[in-house]
User: Fold these one by one.
Assistant:
Number 1:
Amino acid sequence: MNETTCYHCGLPNDDDKRFETVILGQTRQMCCPGCLAVAEAIVSNGLEDYYQFRTEPAQKSDDSILDTLDRLKVFDDPTLQDEFVFDEGKHKQIQLTLEGITCAACGWLIEKQLSKVNGIKQVAVNVQERRALVTWSASVIKLSQILSMLKRIGYSASPFHPDEHEASYKREEKVFIKKLGLAGIMTMQVMMLMTGLYFDWFGAIELETRQYFYWVALTLTTPVVLYSGSTFYLGALKAISAKTVNMDVPVTIAIFGTYIAGIRSTLLEQGEVYFESICMFIFLLLLSRFLEHRSRHRAAQISANMMQYIPVSATKLEADGSVSECLAKQLSKDDVVLIKPGETIPIDGYVTDGNASVDESMLTGEFNPVMKHEKSTVYGGTICKDGSLTVVVTNTLKNALVNQIMRLQASAMASKPKAAQLADEFSRYFVVSVLLIALLTYGYWTYIGNADAFWITISVLVATCPCALGLATPSALTCAMAKLNKQGILLKRADTLEQITTIDTVALDKTGTLTQGKFSLRHSWYAQGVDSQRAWEIASALESRSEHPIAHAFSDDIKHKVSQFTVTPGGGISGEVNGVTFEMGSAVFCGVNSSSNESIPIAANVYLTTKGKLVAAFEVSDTLREDTKSTLEALAITNLLVVLSGDTQQNVDDLTASLPVSVALGGLTPEQKYTEVQTLQSQGKKVLMMGDGINDAPVLASADVAVAVGNATDVAKTAADVILLGDQLLSVPALIDTAHQTRKKIRQNIGWSVLYNIIILPFAVSGLLSPWMAVVGMSLSSIIVVTNSTRLLSK
C-alpha cells in the first residue's frame, strides 16, 4: 500500500486534504475522515494486528458515520452496538460471523475457550453457518475483548451482516480454491513422476537420475505441504494451544511425519519416499473440506435468504405530506412509510390507508397473496403485489420479524441435542485413542523388526481421523432447520427435533388453532331496561383493547374511552367506561349464575356485566380451518388427540363431532388446561401442545413440545418451542415427519462413521492398508456423511 492510496480501504487519497495516523509504528495516509476514524478506533481498541494480518483492503468507511456520537470507537460504542447487539434482560447478545473454521472441532474449541472467560454467559457456535451466538454481561466484559479473545486463538470475528457474511464465505472459498488448485496440479506432476519410478516406466536409469527425480518430487511437494496443508496445521496449533486435541492433530502428524521421512530418505539416498501420498492426502482432504464448505453454505443460504429481501431504502411520508427517501434502518417507531405496487415492504408496521395483496411467502412458505387493508399487520421483506399502502412503523429494522427469526434460528443451535453432545465428546476421546493406537502400533511393529512400522503408523493416523463423526449430527441438524425455515416453520431450540420424535399425544386449543379465529356475532341479548345501542358500544370499546380473536366479532367505531383496562387470561376483560367498571367474558368470570343463564333465550358464551348485574349476552361462533380435518387425520395415525378449550362444552362437542379426536374438554381455565397436560404427562405421555393465545402460555410452557400456531400472541410465541409463521396446520405433520427424517439421518451418519472406523482400523494396524488407500477412505467417509445430510433439503 503506497501513500497515494488509503491504507485502510485502498482507494485513492485526496490530494488537497491529508488524513493520517500512526499504524504499526508508521504514519499511514487515509482517504477520508471516515477511514481515519475507523483506523484510529481500531488502533485504540488494541486491534492493530488487523492491518498486519489482513489479506485484502477494508471497505471504504462512510463519512456520515462520524456524525453519531463517536460511534467509531468500534465495537464498544453503544450507538454502533444498537445496530447489531440485542438486550437479553441483564445480558447482551450478538451474532458473529467467524472466519477460519475448518471442522466441528473448531466450534468446540471456540466454545470451550470463551466459556472460561468471566462475564460470558453462553457461547453457541454453528459450524455449518460459520456463526457464533454470544451472550455476555456488559458490566463485566466488553465486546471488543471478546473479539480480541477470538483473534488470539486464531479466529476472526465480526458482527453478523448478510452481505459481510457472504463476502467472508467468498474470501474463504477463494483461499480454498487456491490451495486446492495448487495441491491438484502438484499431485498430478508428482504422481506421474513417482509412478514412473515405481513401475520402472523410465527403463534402467542410473541411481543419480533416480535421485534427481526424488529431488524434483520433493521440490514439487514442498509448496503443497507448506501452503496447501497449512489449514490443518493451524487447526492443530489452535487445539494444542488450548490444551486439547482435535481431528487436525493426527492429520498434521501424518503429513509432517511422511514429509520429513521423505526428506531424510532423499538426503541419505536410502529408504522409501511417499511424496505422491502426501500430495494426494492433502488434495483429497482439502477436497472433502471444500465440499463440506460448499454444503454448509447451501444449507445456510436457505435460512439466510430472507435477509436479502429487506431493501436498503424506504419512502418516508412526512407530516406535511411530502415524501423523502431514507435508509430502512433509519426508520423509527411511529414513522409513516408509503409502499407502492411491486415494492418490498421495508419494515414491520400496520396499515392506516390503502388495500393491496401482499406476498408473504418469504416468511411463511405459502405463495397465495394475503389481502391487506386498514389495521392489517405487514412485515419487512414481504412484497406488495398490487395497490398502495400507507404503513405506520411498529418495529425498527433491528427488531423486525425477519431479524427476530434469524436470532431465534441462531439461538436454536445453542441448545445441542444429546446426540450432538455425545458425538462431540466421543470425537475428542476418539482422537486421543487414535494417537495412542498409533503409538502402540509403531511400538509393536518396531519391536518385531518390521521395516514398514513408520508407514503402518501413518496409515493408522490417516485412516481413522474422525472427521465424519464430527460432521454427523451438526450437518443433519443444519439441513433440517433450513428445510423447516423454508416451509415457514421456525424452531427456537435445535433439541426440539429430538423431542418431537418421542411425542405420542397431541393436545390442541380450539379457538384460533383448530378454528380460523374469525369470530362472528350470531345472536345478542340485552337485559330489560338496558339501552341496547349503548351496551353494544361499551362492549365494542372494551373488546377493541383485547388481543383475543373473539374481539373481531365486536368490531365497530369506538365511541367510548376505556381506562383501567385489564385482561384475565382464559376468563375475560374488564375496564372503566365513563366512570363505570364493566366485566366482559365467560359466565364464570362475569359471575353469571346458572339461573340467569337459563333465562337468556340464546346459547350465549360471552357476557357483559357491571357491579354484578347482567347487562348483555352474546353468542359468537367460529369455523374450522380448511385443513383442520386433514391435519388431525394425519396426526391421529400415531398420536392420541386431545382438545383443551375455554369455550363451552357444547360448542366444543359440536365442533369436534366430525374430527378424529379422542378427548374433547371445554370450559377450561388456563390452570385447568395446565393440570390436564400435567395429568397426561404423569401417565407417561409425551405431549405436544398447540395454541395461540395468552391463555395458552402456561400450558405451552408445561408441554414437552410447544407449538405456537398462526398469528399467535407474543406471549404464546415466547412460551413455544416451535412457531408456525404461516397459517397452515398441515405444517405440524410436516414438522413431525422432518424430525423423524433428521433422527434417521443422524443415526445413519453416526452409524456409518463408527462402522467405517471399526472396519478400517484392523486393516490399518495390520499393515494391509497403504497410506494412499487410507487417504481415499477417510476423505470419502466425510463426503458421504455431508452428502447424506444434504438429502434432507430435497425431501
Number 2:
Amino acid sequence: MKTIYRIAKTELYTMFYSPVAWVVLVIFSIQSNWKFFDSLERFEKSQKMGDGMGNLSQAIFSGFMGLYTEMQNYLYLYVPLLTMGLISREINSGSIKLLLSSPIKIKEIVLGKYLAIAAYCLLFVGILGLQVVISYFSVENLDLKFAISGLIGLYLLVCTYAAIGLFMSCLTSYQVVAAISTLVVLAGLNFIGKLWQDVEYVKDITYFLSIAGRANEMLEGLIISKDVLYFILVSSLFIGLSIYKLQTGRDAQPASQRVLKYTLLITVVLALGYVTSRASLTFYEDMTRNKDRTLTKTSLDIVNKIEGPVKLTTYVNLLDINYYMAMPYSQNQDISSFENYTRFVPQMQMEYVYYYDTSNNEALYAQNPGLNDKQLAEKLIETQNVKLKKLYSPEEIKKVIDLKPEQNRVVRTIEYNGKKTFLRMFDDLFKAPGEKEISASLKRLVVPAPKIVFATGNMERSIDKNGDKNYKTGFNEITFRYSLINQGFDVSSVDINAQNIPEQTGILIIADPKTQLSQGAIDRITKYIDEGKNVMLLSEPETNSALAAITDKLGLSYTKQTLVQESETNSPDYLVTDLQKNTDPVIKFSKTRNNYPIPLLGSSGITITKDAGFKVTPLLKTNNQPAWESQMGITSVSEELKKQPSITAIPLVVALTRNINGKSQKIIVTGDADFMGNAELSRNGSGTFQFMTDIFSWFSNYEFPIDTTRPENTDKKITINANQVFINKIVFIGLFPLLIILSGAFILIRRNRR
C-alpha cells in the first residue's frame, strides 16, 4: 500500500508540473461556476417578480437544466486530457522498461497511477462542493443530502472515465491517440445500450454495459446499489485490463493464455454485473428530504400487502399507435420504468405478448391503403427488422384474452392471487401509467374495488357516449388516465326498470332521467337506500320532477325553475359557486386542489323540506350575490325579474349522511347534471374535475383514487439578493480561476527554475 501511495504522490506531482492539469481545472471552475450563478441569478429574479418557487435544490442541481446535469454532459471531455499521459508518457520516454524491470509489482504501478487521477478528480468534486456550500447559505432549507447524492454520482462517473482512460493510455505511446481512443470508448459505452436490444440475453448484457444515464438516479437523489456496483465493476475491469496489458510486456505468455485471462476477467465482471442488477439483490437509499424518489406512503401500504408472485403481461398490438413503447428493443427501458415497484415487489414478473388486430390507428391505414391487418404487421416487422418469438393472429389472441373492449390498444394485465386487472396506456403527453394508476391497479387486487353502477332505462346520461352532456370522460374513457375506470373503480350500468340493482353496487348514480321512473324502479331505489347504500342523484331544472319521489324520501326538494344571476361576462344561468369547506365539512377536499372556480350552468337550488334522519351538509352554494328563479334560455336578467324575491347562498350540491346498519351511508344530491358531463370536465380553468374526484374519493372512504400527494417542499426561497449574487459571480468566475492560474504559474515557474 505504501508503494501505491508513493507512486500516486509522484504521479500527482507530475500532473501538476504540467499546464494541462491547471488548464482543465480553470476551465471546469469557470464553466461550473458560470452555470451555477446563472441559475441562482435566474431564480432570484423570478422570486423578485413574484413567481412561485419550489424544490429549489432539485431545480439548481439536477433536472433538465441543473448544474450536475450540465457538468455530467462535459466531464467526458476533461478526463482524456488528464489520463492520456498516465502510461503512454512512460512508454514514449522508455521509462516503462525501468518500471517493469524494477521490483515494484505491476498492479502497484497501475493502482498508484489510478489513485493519482482519482485524487485529482476530487478537485472537481471540491469545486462543485463549494457551490453546494454557497447554496446552503443562499437557499432556505436546502436539501443537503440530495446535493451530496449528486456529488457521489458525479465522482463515481468521472473515476470510471479515468479507469477507461488509464487503459487506453496503456495501448499506445502517443498521448493524443490515447485521448482520442478514450473518447471513442466512452462514446461506445454510451451507445452500446441501444445495440441488439431485440436479441434475447444479449440485450441484458449490452444494457448493463451502457454508461449512458448511469449517474442520473444519483443526480436525482436516489443511490441504487446496482449503479454504484456498475461504476466499481467497470472501473475494476479496465484497471484489470491495464494490469494484464502491462504484464504482457514483462512476462512472455502464450497468446492463448492471454486471451483466456482477458476472457475470464470480462466474463466475471459481466456475471457479477448481471447478478447484482437483479431486483432481489438491489438496494436503495433515497437521499431526498421528502423521499421523493420512493413510492408515497399510500403506495407503500399497498405493495406491503403483496406477498406472492405478481405477473405483469403487456399485450402489444403492432398496429396500435403506441406499439413502439413495448417492442423488444424497448423492453429494458419499459422494465426500468417499474423499478419503483420491483424495488418493493422483486417477485414481479414481466412478460410481453405480441399480436396484430384492427386498431384505431387511422394514420396507419391511410398511409397504407389496400393492405390488410396481417400485411401491415408483416410490413412493420420487415421494415424494423424485428425478431419475435411468436406473433398472435386475431383468432389466436382471442383464445388468450379478449381485447376488443380495450380497443385492441397496447395494454397490460396485472395478475395476483387469482385476480386480474388492466393497466392501460393513455392518450396524453406521458402515455405510460404513473404511480396513481399503477398503485390503483395493484390495490384492486388486494381489496375489493368500489363498484359504480349507473341507472338506465329513462334516457339518463350515458357513460359510453362522447356528447357534451354524457359522462364517458369522467367515468369510462379508457384512454384518459384520470377517468375513474383508470383510478381503481369498476363502472357499469343497469336498467333499473327491468333489473335489480347488483348486490355488489357501492355507488348508485341516477343521472338526469328524462322520463318518470317506473314504480318498480322507485321500489328498487327505495330498497337500496333503506339498506344504507350510497347514492348520487343528479338532475336538471326542467326534468328534476322525475326524481321527486326519491328526493322527497330524503327530505329534500328542488326549486321549480333554474337559478340565474346577473353578470357582465357570463350568461345568467352561469352560477358562481362557493365551495363550503369550513362549515362542518363532510368531504376532505384535496390538499392539492387549485383555487379555480366550480361553475354550474343551469342548476336548480336544493331546499330541506323535512327531517328524514339524514345530516344534510351543503357542498356548493351560490355566492352572496342575489339569484332568481327563471325559465331556461334567457339572455339577461330583466328588470321585471329583479322585482321578484331573490335568494342568496342557496345550496346547489348537498351531501347527506347517516349511520345505518353499522356503517355510514353517503348520498350526494345535485341540482345540475351537466357539471359531470364531458364538456364541463374538459373546461379549462375550472375546478370541477377535482371536485368530482373528491366526491368519489369520499364515496370510497378515501381508498380510491390513490392519494400520491407528498409533503410540500420547504426549499422555496432564495435568501440572497441580486447584488450579493453579482459579487459572488465576480469572486468565483473571475477571482477564483485567477487564483488557480496564479498558483499553477507559481508552481510551474518554480519547477522550471529548479
Number 3:
Amino acid sequence: MLRALPLTALLLAGGALSAQAATAPVAQASAATSAETGPVLTTPQEWRRMAEAGSAYPLFAVERARVESLVRAAMAQGVNVPTPRDPGGGFTHEQHKRNYLAIYNAGALYRLTGDKAYADFARDLLLEYAKLYPTLGAHPAGRGQIPGRLFWQTLNDSVWLVYSVQGYDAIRETLTAEERRRIDDDVFRRMAGFLSAETPENFERIHNHATWAVAGVGMTGYVLRDRDLSDKALTGLKKDGSAGFLTQIDQLFSPDGYYEEGPYYQRYALAPFIIFAGAIDRNEPGRGIFQRRDGVLLKAVDTLIQSSYGGYFIPVNDAILDKGLDTEELVTGVASVYARTQDAGLLSIAQRQGRTLLSPEGLKVAEAAASGAARPYAFRSVLLSDGPDGTHGALAILRAGGEDGQALVQKATAMGMGHGHFDKLNWLFYDNGQTVVTDYGAARFLNIEAKAGGVYLPENNSWAKATVAHNALVVNERNQFGGEWQTGQNHPPQVLFFDTVEGTQIVSARQAGAYDGVTFTRTQALVEHPELERPVVIDLLRVSGERPARYDLPLHYNGHIMKLGFEAERAVAARPVLGTADGYQHLWVDAVSQPSLDSRSLTWLLDGRFYTWRFASSVPAQAILAESGANDPDFNLRREPALILRADGQKDATFVGVLEPHGRYDGRAETVVGADSAVRDLRSVRGADAEVVVVTLASGKTVVLGVADDPSPRAAHAVTANGRTWRWTGPWARLDQ
C-alpha cells in the first residue's frame, strides 16, 4: 500500500529543514489536547530540554543528524505498509522493520524540531496500519507454535510494538479524536491484545521473547491510559505476580546481573528491560524499578560490558559472533545506566559507540562526554554468578594485560534454556585482541534468506550445540545430558573456588549429571612467571566414572599450525569422518597419533603471535587433529580446526595442558622472534586428595600449581612423587621451585 506524502514532507525530504523549523521549540499541546493525550513515556519537559540544549553536545547532535537522514529517506520513499508475506530477511519483513524505526524516530524529531511534517508522516504510517492490522491472521510464513501477524514470529511483532508505541506517544496529541481512536483501537489495542491475552503461552513465559511482549504491552497501557494492560504486563495476565515483567527481572538475572541465556541474549533482552523500566520509572516511580533486587538492571549493563573482549561479546550458547559493544541495545543500556549512576567509565563506551539516544538519558551522556568526564572503562577479572539466587554456576573471566591482553573464560554456567549448548566447563581464551581458543557460537546467518530464511540451521543442533564442538569433556562420543536441554537445566555446575592474587588467577568448577555415573572437575589458572613472556593458561581436568568409557577432550583453536610436536599418521589420500552422531559426523580427521603418556605439543600462529599448547594425561591418550565441515552438503559450517585428546577404556583420568602465548612474527619486516616455546615439559602428579601440576621451563625452573579436591580453606594437603613432597593448606597454592 503506497500513499502520497504531504507536500511539506516532500519538501523536507528533499533538503535541509527551514531555519524556522530547525530552531522551533518542542511542540506544545494544542487546545484540543489534554493530559489524556500528551506524552507519558518521555515528559513534555524532558522533550523541551532536549530541543533547547541538544545541539550544543556533539554526541546528541550527531545522533539527531543521523536520525534526520534516516527519516528523510523514509519520507522520500513514501508510506509503504505491505501485506505480510516474507520470512525474516524478505522484503515485507524488512519494510515493517523500517516502518517501526521511522515511526519511532519521526516522533522524536517532531518533539525536537516542532516540525509537524514528522508527526504527519508517523500518523500516515499508523493510519495505514490501522487499515491493515484488523485484516491479518497468522503470518503466512509463520514458524513455531505462535506465528506473528506482521512478522513470521511473535517476537518481531513485539519489537515493532515496543518502538512504534514510543513514536506514537510523541505524536498522539497532534491527532484528531477520530485519528486517535482508529490508531488506538485498530493498531495498538489490537496488537497488545494479540501479544497478551490471545497468546498467553508466549506472554507468560520467563524468556526474552516474553520480555519484548510485556514491554510493548506495558508501554501501550501507559500511552492509552489503560491501567489493566500495564498491570498485566507487570504482574501477568492474572495480575498475581506469577508472570510478567517483575517476575522476569527476578528469575532471568542472577544477583550479579548475568542473564540466563548468556551475553548474546543478554544484549538482545537488555533493550526491552531497560526501555520498559524507564517507562515504569516515569509513570510509577513508587515501584523503584531500578532499585529492584539491589539494582540488578543497572548491574546487568556492567555485566554485559564485562562479558566482552575486543569489542565483541563472549559467544557462549546460541551466539552470533559479530555482536558487540556498538549494538543498539547497549547504546540504550549505557545511556540509561549512566543517567542513573554517573559512572564515568560508561562514557568511554558511549564514545566508542560514537552515538547515544535522542532521549533525556542520551542528553545526559552527551553533556558529560562533552565536558571531558569520560574515564576508561574498568575491564576486570570477575565471577558472574548464574541463576536467580546466584547458585546455578557462574561465568568466570580472568584478565591480565589490559583490555586487549589475556582473557581466560570458563563457562560453568547453567544451561541457558533452549538457547544453551551442551558444553559444561567449556573455556575460551583471548590474547592480542584475538580469539585464540574459540567457541563456534550459533549455526545461523541471521535474516539471510539464502540460508534457510535466516533461522537457525539444522547444523545448529547437529554441530554448534554438540559437546564435541566445544572445549568440553565428551564421554562415549555423546552429548552431555543426552542432548536434552531440559535435563541440563536441572544440573548446573558447582563453582568450587575463584581467586585472584598477584601472579595467579584461578577458578575451579565441578559437574555431575552431564553423564550417568560421571563427575568431572576443571581447574584453570592464568599464571605469570618472570621467565614467561606473557601469562599462560594452566588447565587441569579430572574425570571419575563408574565404568570404563571413552573420554574425548577437544581444543578448538584459531590459527595456522606451525609445528606438530608429536608423531601422527596423516590422512592424506582420504579424509575419514570421526563419528556418526552428536557432532562427530561433522569432523574430518587429518591426523591421529598413537596413545601415549608423554607430554606433547602443538604450535600455531595467529596475527603475528605464536601459541603453544602442551598437553599430557594420566592414562594413555591419542591426539587427533580434526576440522569441522564433514557431512555438510549445503556448506553451512565454517571450517575450523580442533585437537582432540582421546583416552579409551578408562574409569578415571586426568588431562592437563598449558597454553603459552609467545614470540612475534612480522611479515612486513620478515622477522621472527621467540618462535620456540619456553615450556620444556608438563606433568601432573596425583595424591590422595589433590593434584599437582608441574610446568618445567627451558631454564629448568618450574611453575607448580597444587589443586585440592576439597575446596575447604582449612584442609591440609600433601602430594609426593620422586622423593619430592608438596604441602599446602586450602583449595590451591603456587608451589614453584
